[in-house]
Amino acid sequence: MKKLYFALMLLLGLLCAPAAQAAAEPLPPEQAFQVSAEAGTPLRVSVRIAPGYYVYRDKFSFTLTPAALQAGAPTMPPGLSHTDAHFGEQIIYRDHLSFTLPYTGTGTPETLSLTLQGCADIGICYPPTPYTLSLTAQSSPAGGPLTLDLRKGLSDAPLDPPATPPAPAQAGADEATRISRLLDGGNLALIAASFFGFGLLLSFTPCTLPMVPIVSSIIVGHGHKLSHRRAFALSSAYVLGMAVTYAGAGVLAGFSGQLLSVWLQNVWVLGAFALIFVVLALSMFGLFELQIPARWQHKLSASAHHHAGSMPQLAIMGAISALIVGPCVAAPLAGALLYIAKTHDAVLGGLALFALGLGMGLPLIIVGVAARRLLPKPGGWMEGVKRFFGLVLLGTALYLVSPVLPPLLPMLGWAALLITGGVFLRAIDPLPDQAHAALRLFKAIGILLLLAGAAIFIGALAGSRDPLQPLAGLRAGTANASEAPRFTRIKSNAELDAQLAASTRPVMLDFYADWCVSCKEMEHRTFADPQVAGQLASFTLLQADVTDNTPDDRALLKRFGLFGPPGILFFRPGGEELAGKRVIGFMGAEEFAQHLRQLTTD
Description:
Distance between the termini: 55 Å
Helix content: 40-55%
Strand content: 5-15%
Largest sheet: 5 strands, antiparallel
Structural class: alpha+beta
Number of strands: 19
Number of helices: 22
């Protein structure tokens, strides 16, 4: 009953959260991002992130005092992939972020100076925000970490709970944090069941698809005389190898206190696994044959007959598959390993990851048992299956390395993959008049793949970086063919006052920064719209560039009570601001044009 209630509340939150968020005013940075630190070797840093806000992984910087100490590279959990049209693929964190910060040098750290940068979902981006945390002050009686409030300075009180609980839509955004919280509950049966469910869900991701032909080919290779019991045993051995490998990772993390999933997110590790998938795919296409030496084949065959069916070999294959799939399922792995690293409870963590592996393997067991009856005898049809799974392997390789590639390359990769798939399905080959219905269906699917690949390729050349919306940039470019209005840059309150005093026309002041995604969208989609550009011709256009976050930049933001760009203000000739006419966050061209019309009629 509790699960049903939670599901209903989550659905309600997903429906209502966007509306509530749109109406909310942006929070000050010290409320949006609350930072705490714990002394130790290494240091432990936590960031509590308000619902509807996020921080960038690559925007953190650290300095320690005394100066003899040097901060190392933080060990952060895998984050969420965040794509925008201008900055490409970014890694962000929501709700809560905990990480360790190693340091080198002699002495004990006294203060940690930390800078982070984040944004709100409504379109506001904050300038780089500095925090200074004391690491030598006495801990609070409750044992909570030391915290910093930018308005009040250092506080020795634990972080207060937020005034309102996180919206369900945001509470589930960071998988690693959510799973870590689940483990904190300590109910062994619930933990095992939950992780089995997580694994079952993960089994439907692209990462596990390459395992399907492995299991099915094993079963088909034993012939139609194979019993259901034997098929179940063979596929179960493969899955147990996977599950034991995951459990071993959990136990190892319990003893070492380190997040192995971070290692699995290393660029070189991802590249190595992707290369393995590419090699396997080329083998599927028949470019070469992957096989072990004849002497080894003979020994394995003899072992299989002696042990009634190569169980150890299948378990080893399952273990290797788990290592290859590891980078794809890094977020759930990070959740379990995050908890294990904190509590050093290797038994609980090992059990959780073992259940995760069993959940991921359940569909593979079903495939193994069903393959005996559902799959036809080996023959020419298997060549088509090999090519299909070759494309799946290439797609998995591209999926693995996409987060660490320039945004253009994955777009071109997906285009090439879809076009190749269409060609393999005979999209451009003529069919005989008496062609079977299945061949016609495959040709239709091939044509769709060919068109989708062409659309992604054209979109990539037009500047789009989202393979799911490849032509969005092309449409925007056609609509926004007009030249964008030109702004006069100002850098201080004094420059602004001089411009306002000299203006004989209404003034629009735009707060802008190079790191502000919504600012770029306003520039390319809104200001460049022909209708908007025509209306702005009657305004004096000023732009406050706060990219560098200098004292003058902060003074400009503070003067108007803004926390970051974008923010657009309007003034009468002479310098009086029009009350209630501000635009905070991104606004589309049509809505902004309507807003300008209201200004001229009021």
